[in-house]
Each structure stands twice: as C-alpha cells, then as structure tokens.
TrEMBL record:
PANTHER family in the record: 2-AMINO-3-CARBOXYLMUCONATE-6-SEMIALDEHYDE DECARBOXYLASE (PTHR21240), 2-AMINO-3-CARBOXYMUCONATE-6-SEMIALDEHYDE DECARBOXYLASE (PTHR21240:SF27)
Keywords in alphabetical order: Decarboxylase, Lyase, Metal-binding, Zinc
Source organism of the structure: Paraburkholderia phytofirmans (strain DSM 17436 / LMG 22146 / PsJN) (Burkholderia phytofirmans)
Pfam families hit by this protein: Amidohydro_2
Name this polypeptide is given: 2-amino-3-carboxymuconate-6-semialdehyde decarboxylase
Domain Amidohydrolase-related: 2-326
Pathway: Secondary metabolite metabolism; quinolate metabolism
InterPro entries: ACMSD (IPR032465), Amidohydro-rel (IPR006680), Metal_Hydrolase (IPR032466)
Length: 334
C-alpha cells in the first residue's frame, strides 16, 4: 500500500503550474530510463515501472504481488504554490493516476493528492477523487511550519474521518540545516524523525481529542523512529507536567489511532514494530519502485522467524484490505 508513481508529465504540462520549478518527466530514447526534472534541474533518476503500468504489472507478477496502491512521488505535492494552481495540479495528477490504474483496475489502485495549503480545496479534492475511484489520500507530514496538530490540518483530517477517506502520511521536505549534506542523510535520518514528530505531535497536542476516532491514519516507513522511542515519550509524559499539559491520556493509549507500513528492512525492527503497534495495525509497504524500498516486496514479512502465520497473513494483505476497503477476493491474474 506504499508504492509510488510519476506520470509521464511533459514539461509543457508542468509549466502550467510553474515553468521554472514544477516537476516533469524526461524519458530516455529507449523508453526504459528517465529523469524526474524540476524545471532545468535533474531531481532523481528513475526507470520505466514508475510511469508505465504494463511494466509495473510485469514486475508485480515476478514478485508475486496481487495489488499495489500507488501514491504520488512527494515532489509532486505542490504545497508551495497558490491554492488555485495547486488545486488544478492535484486534480490533473489524480486523473493521471486513475488513467494508469485503468490498465489493470483490479490490481492497480491509487491514493490521491490534495492542495493541502487550502483546507477547503483540499477537502473538496479529497472527496472528488475518492468518489472517482481513489482508495484514499496521501499527504505530506507537515505544511511548512505547520505540523499535523495545526488546526488547519486537523480540519482536513476530520473531514477525511467524516467522509471515510483513509489517509497515508508520507514524510517530505525533511528537516535539515545543512549538516546532512551527503550520503542521503536527509532520507536516512530526517525522514524517520519527521514521521515521529508528526505522530507525537498528534498525541501530545491533544489533537486526537478533536479528531474522530473513525479516522483511518497510516504512516509510512514503519512510523519512522516512533516505535523505538515511544518509551521515552511515555516516560516524559509521566514525569513532566509540561509534556502532559495538553494530553489527557498516556501516550501508549493512543496506539490504536495509528497504522504504519512494514518498510523497516530489518527482522528486529519489524518484530518491535509489530509488538508495539499490534499485528492488526501494520500494512505491507515497500516504497517501490525506488531503490531505498524493499526490493523483494514482502520477503521480510513472509520469512520472518518470529511472526505467526496469522500475523503474516494480516500484514501481507488482510490489514490493507480492511483499512482501504479493498475487495476481499481478487484472484491473481497475469
């Protein structure tokens, strides 16, 4: 349920948002490789499965994956633009996503993006996209200086709860002051920290007291560093008034409000994640088709020596079916 796409956006289409910085796809002559561009700047090398649904299905067959939920590559979010332009951009990207899914609609499904900088337009597009066939929405974990506990974002999350729209939160625009300048350190260090910041902010701010419990909320990359550091948060809540002043209940009591994906890449980390979050709250995620994702999707779960067969079945499919309301009986079709 955590895989990415980037449609074959021509530079001319990107220019409708911003000719200087908007993302577009430069595809090599052989059609196999490409480069995500932001204006004239090279952003990330990619390959065909990111934009070609036939290539994606072929790789899914090779990996034994029946269904993928695709979501936007975060560079597509467009949160820094004016609300009207971002709304038009999000709607076009969501339509592109459904066009890709139409190649194999029982196997490829999508999560929408929204113009999060304008809560009214974001709610409108979330509802439109959900009714058009998107299985939920993906949002970034913050909006500039606003974390998920900001009233603007709480309003959006409440709308999704009331409309029955599942939400996947993905870290983006990672915190850095220039010290993480090499070796992909923003992705390796700041991404997990961003995710934990979002989850803890929802707890300690009291935001969960204002958001309906019906909200289906999932965080990418195993919730980042949240599971490992939950004990630190719990201890601080017990010991310091300043930590619990807006949070009426122990942090561990809010675990039922979260789901996370399984993309943690280590047996010990997955065991801790399942023990902390519960086997009903971990969904198979991979970050496909990027190289920082799980290359053999599902292997860590399927071959884990300490997970029960029941837990594996839930994580490999049943939890996502329940969370996103997917059809229960879908036969694998090559």
């Amino acid at each position: 349920m955590h895989s990415h796409f980037f449609p074959p956006i021509a530079r001319e289409e990107a220019a409708r948002l911003d000719a200087q910085h908007a993302p577009w796809l430069q595809i090599d002559a052989d059609g196999e490789r490409g480069m995500i561009m932001t204006g004239e700047k090279r952003f990330r090398p990619v390959y065909r499965a990111l934009w070609d649904p036939a290539a994606r299905i072929a790789e899914m067959d090779a990996l034994g994956v029946d269904i993928q939920l695709m979501c936007a590559t975060p560079v597509m979010f467009g949160y820094g633009y004016g609300a009207a332009a971002a709304h038009d951009w999000a709607a076009r990207m969501n339509d592109h996503a459904l066009e890709l899914c139409a190649h194999a609609p029982q196997r490829l499904m999508a999560l929408a993006q929204v113009p999060l900088q304008d809560v009214e337009l974001a709610c409108r597009e979330a509802t439109r996209a959900h009714r058009a066939g998107h299985r939920g929405v993906q949002i970034g974990n913050h909006l500039g200086p606003r974390d998920l506990d900001d009233e603007h974002l709480v309003t959006f999350l409440t709308h999704c709860a009331n409309e029955g729209i599942p939400v996947l939160v993905h870290p983006w625009d990672m915190m850095t002051d220039g010290r993480m300048k090499k070796w992909m350190l923003p992705w390796l260090v700041a991404m997990p920290a961003e995710t934990q910041l979002s989850m803890v902010s929802l707890i300690l701010s009291g935001a969960f007291e204002r958001i309906p419990k019906s909200l289906k909320l999932c965080f990418a990359h195993g919730g980042g560093s949240f599971a490992f550091l939950l004990g630190r948060v719990q201890n601080a809540w017990e010991q310091r008034d300043i930590v619990r002043e807006d949070c009426p209940n122990p942090p561990v009591s809010y675990l039922e409000r979260f789901h996370v994906d399984s993309a943690v890449f280590d047996e010990g980390a997955l065991r801790l994640l399942v023990e902390t979050m519960g086997e009903d709250h971990v969904l198979l995620g991979s970050d496909y088709p990027f190289p920082l994702g799980e290359l053999k999707i599902g292997d860590l779960v399927a071959h884990h020596p300490q997970l029960s067969e029941t837990a594996k079945a839930k994580i490999l499919g049943a939890n996502a079916q329940r969370f996103f309301g997917l059809p229960v009986n879908i036969a694998h079709a090559s």
